[in-house]
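## retry 2 of 3
previous attempt timed out at serialization; input unchanged, resubmitting
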Amino acid sequence: SVAAARRSIDGPLLLAIAAAFGLGAALETSGVAAAIGGGLLTLAGSDLWLLLVCTYLATTLLTEVVTNNATAVLMFPIVMAATEAAGANPVPFTIAIMMAASASFATPIGYQTNLMVYGPGGYRFSDFLRFGLPLNVLCGVVTVLVAPLVWPLQG
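## retry succeeded, writing output
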């Protein structure tokens, strides 16, 4: 029924996703994205492989506590600033963001479906860690190894 459909809408979740778009735009226009991108570059040095690993790790850590949409919106301007400063091809880094933001398996918080099944399914937080963390690692290794083979790191 229409009433049941209205009750099933998760207002706070929709608000969190919408707020993330505004936060992403604010990060970009305020220069914070460029500053964080510079920090990623400092951490990686001149090694583009290490920058790719840092991109994937930062994105996957963020996506476990924030929704995947919000994470992608937040990380994209940061990584674009870092790749522009490094003279790197942004495509493999964008793929890393896309994959890491979508691979939220280690917590029930980072993805809407995880959160929806968490309570009704009787799952514990540790269940997500035990099964999701190895999946996150596998996705990360495959992405970091395959993306540069398809799209070169140099711009």
